[in-house]
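Pilot study result, target chain (372 residues):
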Amino acid sequence: MSHIPAPAAIGDKLAEVDTPALVLDLDAFDANLNAVHHHVLERAVRLRAHGKAHKCSAIGLRQVAAGAIGLCCQKVGEAEVFVQAGIGDVLVSNVIVGLPKARRLAALARTARVGVCVDSALQVEQIAQAAREHQVSVDVLIEIDVGMGRCGVLDEAEAQALATLIASHAPALKLRGLQAYHGRAQHMRTTAEQAVAIGKAAARAARMASALRDAGHRVEEITGGGTGTYPYEIASGVYTEVQPGSYVLMDGDYARNQPDPDSPSLAQALGLLCSVITVRDTHAVLDGGLKTFAVDSGLPQPQLRGWSTRGLSDEHMVIEPAGNAESLQVGQKIRVIPGHCDPTVNLHDWIVAVRGNRVEQVWPVDARGALF
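Predicted structure:
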């Protein structure tokens, strides 16, 4: 539990929420959750919700209750929070290096099904050592580079060598399959671009899986995909599991993507509630700045007729009017949409969940700052 006081209490009116505060529209959240889960599960593909988006075990538990097989996350620290909260199946969809991390991960396998990605022999050896020390079995997925230019093996020979090494460490390690995530494709603006990118990624994953199976290795799972592309991973027939995360929140960057007419339409559920602290003829100032919003995917935008964002400093957001701008008053509270939800959430200790004009829940962002 955070030592920072919550900005609201259950039952408060929206106007009573202290600012700046992360506010989640529960009607939009529920609609997004139900629509995506239905779309995925009716196509006989597993959904593993990505916890890096919300870093909040209360949301993760709701995703599992709605049919997610479990969560994935990017850090061992996030996995620790989710397992402690009672989520029994967690995948670290990232590679990890270092015995301290490997030992913490292995400790989680005492009470949960735990998986992790690898793309080098050192990672395999360290995870195997930790698993033996804790007398557990850890699932391992070989990460393949399907277009990210980041982590992942590059060819079938490299994947086969890792699979053979993993097999040599049984029962401490078990090869579950492949991680084939194409993050760049999530923010390609047109559906045509996304479909082409995921088609290539799926073909690469299929070749890798075939090579491993031909060499005698079991490939039970091929996982990847995200909010921007999960329908294409499903349609490929290659992926057994998809990993959308931002779908329950959404942000300004995803709003710039061309919608897929055959996939659920997603509403903007997450916003920042900010207060107007200064009003001038030429501009107004809100009480949220760079310590409130991530700006890697563009500046946050106020939900106000005729106003746009001029710029941010540490604790201030300056907005400016156009000709038809609605009038503002000091003390007025404004909803602002972040450009990128994931790193914005990581700046906050609490999510204020509202339905209509009332606070229904106040959830700690309990995996905030889980960076290692």
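One observation from the pilot: Residues 191-214 form the longest helix (24 residues). A full batch analysis is planned for the follow-on phase.
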